[in-house]
Specification:
The complex is a heterohexamer, with two copies of chain A, two copies of chain B and two copies of chain C.
Chain A: E1 10-13, H1 18-26, E2 33-36, H2 47-56, E3 60-63, H3 64-70, E4 79-81, H4 83-91, E5 96-99
Parallel strand pairs in A: 1-2, 1-5, 2-3, 3-4
Chain B: E1 4-9, H1 16-30, E2 34-40, H2 61-71, E3 76-79, H3 80-86, H4 91-96, E4 108-111, H5 114-122, E5 125-129
Chain C: E1 9-12, H1 21-34, E2 40-43, H2 63-68, E3 77-81, H3 82-87, E4 100-102, H4 104-112, E5 117-119
Parallel strand pairs in C: 1-2, 1-5, 2-3, 3-4
The chains are: A alpha/beta, B alpha/beta, C alpha/beta.
């Protein structure tokens, strides 16, 4: 499975449905990144879901404007990025895989 | 370094995905990147429907997409098969059914799935919203 | 704890933002209240997230603001599934509007004793 | 004993819910029951959009609904707020925007949510599909 | 909570999403009935989900035409009914609650 | 076990019937194959149910029949998540088309090594 083609994927999670989250997690390992956005920002509110994310990878992000509109009273639990940073992130990874 | 993006919007007008796609596309252009093509698929084809009508004070994501597309002259393709199934007809398709109107917003064109898969493989990065 | 006479019940199980469902649920609940049907509403699962105050987004309707008007519209029975609050680490003091926290057995009773029920 | 049903269809045309509603409604009539009202809400409003176009050989659930409604003269209301938001305009609403067409299938009318909640409380049973 | 108004509900489940199933189950007890239809017929294929259903109520049904189109190779695990029977069932219960 | 050169990947996670998504996924997969992009497809979660032969419904497109044409269209890499099969008590002999059963680690590799990936 040589490392030559092994580039990390950016998974984009916009849902808190258990099944969607489980599918997203099942396809990830520590080389991948995860961006929470849309209603996916609420994953931060679920301790078991957040633990599951952290166990898979340390590269966790949340889309800042979506966090601000959904959880304005809370500081993000992971690195907050804006759209410009999301664009940059998508250019430093392999495939971007969306889970809505 | 400038890169090229192929973006697919599968999200319906009132959903987060439609906004994510638009803001991401704006950020691409703002950073000097290019958009190979926008492809509207699934419920995303409704973004090309010109009759969407929102109450006063609510922003029309469909109009915002149109403004973005025309301002930056971006190739915006609505999947023809998905559009017909959902009733989003351009002049030609309406005429085929004896109807004399056009439901497709200016700036959008109907075309096939090949436009999408080709753009995805040409571009530096392909992203789907929705 | 439940309505003594069967009334309509609206069950909200969707997160507030990702689709128009949540909003269309609230609009129909308000219509029922406006017709003086004295509807009850039950928030469960992801639906409890609708009760968290939201930041303003220009051009978008704030669903939580709409919900804050429930009492004004005469919606008096607001039930919130206790287990779902725990799932999303929410405490009752954070929620607007607040409501009556109920357990699973009571959720079941609220449903059984409704006149008709719809879920959004 | 004959009973009355108030049915709400929230399901989009291509989904199981749209078929469930139709077949359930047919079974009601076949058994001598009455339908107080059909109310199309959410993505169910697309069932009233007359431009839906399916490939040859595929049955149009939207046409089947229309045939059922007109055959049995059933009161079929499409939620006006949900329809405007999704671009399903009748003559009147189109004219309001300077457009000269009607996108609503014959047999359907646009009206408000009150029509639904009232029918639900009048009927012996109220059921939602989708 | 007197029994006077306690009439059973008919829950209609047209999904196999874990969350939808969990919500549906959470609102049921042994006095209620459950009808599987649409992609909900696949619940029969999941041993844990089917066990969960049976633990809640013995009044389990599947819509015959949906079973036939989705699992044509299998005999229904619960009582199969047609649309006419569904109409009748809905007239012998309290509220009908749909989970799509 | 994966494509030696990055190719498109289609990830199918939806049950076959409840919405048009599953079908539109298959149609786009076929378009990619027709453009000679040599796409791979991965069935996971409820998506594995698409591989169960379906009964005929008059006037409706049979999704499983469409999938049976995959090899004809030159889709050679068909991956099926082994854990998902177990979830729905499915055995490989029942599935049409059949494919390569893979575990979670391999699902991850298939995604990482794709040129681009979409999920339906």
């Amino acid at each position: 499975m040589g490392g030559t083609f092994l580039v990390m994927a950016l998974h984009v999670l916009a849902s808190i449905n258990s099944d969607t989250l489980a599918h997203c997690m099942a396809g990830m390992n520590s080389a991948d990144s995860l961006l929470l956005l849309g209603d996916g920002v609420y994953v931060q509110q679920s301790a078991p879901q957040m633990t599951a994310c952290r166990e898979v990878t340390a590269n966790l992000y949340v889309l800042a404007p979506d966090h601000a509109s959904r959880l304005p009273h809370l500081t993000p639990a992971v690195t907050a990025i804006d759209y410009a940073e999301w664009v940059n992130l998508s250019l430093t990874c392999g495939p971007v895989i969306s889970w809505y | 370094m400038a890169a090229s993006f192929s973006l697919c919007i599968k999200a319906a007008p009132q959903t987060a995905g439609a906004l994510h796609g638009l803001e991401f596309a704006k950020a691409c252009i703002a950073q000097g990147h290019t958009i190979t093509r926008l492809f509207f698929y699934g419920d995303g084809v409704y973004l090309g429907l010109k009759t969407l009508t929102l109450p006063q004070g609510e922003a029309s994501i469909s109009q915002q997409w149109q403004a973005f597309i025309t301002t930056h002259s971006i190739d915006a393709v609505v999947c023809i098969a998905a559009a017909l199934r959902r009733g989003v007809l351009d002049c030609t398709e309406a005429a085929r059914q004896g109807l004399e109107f056009n439901l497709l917003r200016e700036g959008f064109v109907l075309s096939g799935l090949g436009q999408w898969v080709a753009a995805n493989s040409e571009a530096d990065q392909a992203i789907t919203f929705g | 704890m439940v309505n003594p006479v069967p009334k309509p019940l609206f069950i909200f199980t969707q997160a507030p933002h990702n689709n128009p469902q949540a909003r269309e649920g609230v609009e129909s609940l308000l219509a029922s209240a406006a017709f003086d049907q004295q509807p009850a509403v039950l928030f469960m699962g992801q639906g409890v997230l609708q009760l968290v105050p939201q930041g303003e987004q220009p051009g978008a309707k704030n669903l939580n603001k709409m919900l804050q008007a429930l009492e004004l519209y005469g919606v008096e029975h607001i039930y919130i599934c206790r287990d779902s609050l725990a799932t999303y680490a929410l405490t009752p003091d954070l929620l607007t509007p607040s409501g009556q926290l109920i357990g699973q057995d009571e959720c079941c009773q609220v449903m059984q004793q409704s006149q008709w029920a719809v879920r959004f």
